[in-house]
Amino acid sequence: MKIVEQIKQPIAFEMDLFEQKFRLSMSSRVALLNRITHYIVNRKGKQMRPMFVFLVAKMVSNGEVLERTYRGASVIELIHTATLVHDDVVDDSNRRRGFFSVNALWKNKIAVLIGDFLLSKGLLLSIDNNDFDLLKIISVAVREMSEGELLQIEKARKLDITEAIYYDIIRKKTATLIAACCSLGAASVKPDSQDVEQMRKFGELIGMAFQIKDDLFDYGETQIGKPTGIDIKEQKMTLPLIYVLNTCSPKDKEWLINSIKNHNRNSKRVKEVIAFVKRNGGLDYAIAKMKVFQNEALQLLQTYPETAYKNALKLMVNYVIERKK
Q1: For the whole prediction, is pTM greater than 0.85?
Q2: pLDDT digits (tens, 9 = 90+) for 55-66
């Protein structure tokens, strides 16, 4: 059995029901909107985010989920989908998970409006049901994701990024949404409990490990949907590169910065940068840091009783580290 199927097993019923509720939450009276949202839903990914919501909810409440849990999972997925649609416009990307992106098929203007529509659907789903505590968790995540993206753009221009700033960027850009899923799962069944903060921290740690794993793919040989070296071409400062920039000689540092600033479109030069980072321990350092976040996340699960949900979350943490794409 595939690992994702194993993780899903204890929440298979909830995920099936969620699927129906999520489709309903996207519906509209406008035919064009329904056509596009139908296209999006039928090309969904692994749905890791709702899986986090249901697994955490069931782990902290001895197997209980409420209607609020389904709403929370739908809101997260609506807002996550909205950010992906907007990201494709920002990045001028024509593909998403191997299929044409919304902007490639319907142009940027419609894609931006679809993203706005999904965002408002998510907010109203919470407001209409008085889930203000869940709405606050999600709204903080949206704010942080925007800040993280802008901080990354600002730093890419100057290439003056430290390891601390890098962690700040990935915490906001990637980890905050997974943290929101986990805290929301806990809050949906046990509002105002200690579990809400403990699970937020758990999700944040997984998100940090997840992003470092993504950074490592940039130096790998395997095809994962994005070409090797794409982060360097886009002048994104990833952990392996930051480590090597901070530990190599001034002459090598000058060559690296010059390569990223002025020769990032030269495939030969990008390959040389990748080889240099590998040779100088950048990947080993990033892998070690990723494992620290992984172990801290697993540590936070220790206080909960042994259940199928806890085991599935452990599998999820390890899957984040060991995934091939």
Answers
A1: yes
A2: 999 999 988 899
Count of other CB atoms within 10 angstroms of residue 70: 22
Per residue in 202-256, pLDDT (tens digit) is: 999 999 999 999 889 888 755 444 556 777 777 788 899 999 999 989 999 999 9
Write b or e for each residue in 189-204: b if 16 or more Cβ atoms lie within 10 A of its Cβ, otherwise e: bbeeeebbebbbebbb
Residue type, 290: M
CA distances from 131 to 20, 188, 206 (A): 20, 9, 25
What sections of the chain are H helices per DSSP? 3-8, 12-25, 31-41, 48-60, 67-90, 102-128, 132-158, 163-170, 176-189, 194-217, 230-233, 239-247, 250-262, 267-279, 282-301, 308-322
CB atoms within 10 A of CB 113: 15
Q: How far apart are CA 130 and CA 272, in angstroms?
A: 55
Rounded to whole angstroms, the Cα distance separating 303 from 285 reads 30
Residue pointed to by tokens 């206080």: 303
Query: Do 185 and 52 contact (CB within 8 A), yes or no?
Result: yes
Classify residue 255 by burial, with Cβ atoms within 10 Å: 0-12, 13-18, 19+: middle
pLDDT greater at residue 287 or residue 90: 287
Q: What is the mean pLDDT of the chain?
A: 87
Which pair of tokens denotes residue 21? Answer: 């509720």
Cα distance between residue 161 and residue 134, in whole Å: 33
